[in-house]
Amino acid sequence: MTPTLVRQHLPHAGPAPRVDLCARARDWSEIQERMLVPLYEAVYERLEVGPGTRLLGLGCGSGLALLMAASRGAEITGVECHSPERLALARDRLLPEAPEAPAGVEARLVEDCPENVTDTRTAPYTLVTAFEPIGCLAGDSEGLAELLAGAVPLAEHGAAVVLAGWGPPERCTTSSVLRVAARLADPLRFTGGWRPTHRDDLEEVAQRAGLKPDGSGRVACPFGYTGPRSAVRGLLSTGLFDAAIAATDQAQVEKELTEALHPHRRPDGTVWMPNVFRYLIARVP
User: Which keywords does the record carry (predicted)?
Assistant: First the structure.
């Protein structure tokens, strides 16, 4: 998501932001990606991911969720359509020839659309994940639906497809910070609101993809940082502030973001923002 959160799979409207995409991808990998680990763990535990699981990760980013699945014994494939910089970091983590790759992990990583991961040697996938939470950018659900359209035919009958979204704003402390992005990106239309995932957004995406909902859950995913500087770098790495940077400049966004983080600083200087994310499990008919 350009690097994106959370998307990774979500296109941005407007001019391309003036950012260092390689540095942004490193910040995602080193700071922000771990914030969704409780979500990955909850889903993998509920679906009993392990040996025999053939997982296709959409918007795999720098590969942390894939690595966690592989550590459980799953066979993993990752697709990253919008951030070659993040995918390069995933290769360092997961491909056998990479110096940072752990022993015993084998992965297929594709810098393209899901349709191009077909391989006659590979059995259909038993699990498809789209962990990038929708609900912050206009059109993000449409982007997710497009990804699913290419991925669902690769999965076997009854395979689980997992979608994720932000929880209600009253349970997402980060929503107050994300309002900075909305206000700076489009000040004339800004009304003070932040549009989190609506209650049925994930179900609607699943329905458009021809999937049958089969359960859901909520997971606490607090965003914790060593300090404001780390928080700013992590949040900018999501791509959710790119439109604001394009409309103003990075220095202005960083200044206002730092101010918005002030209420969330703890006495020891760290930044702590509790959030809740929702996931939906749907099945391939």
Answer: Methyltransferase, Transferase
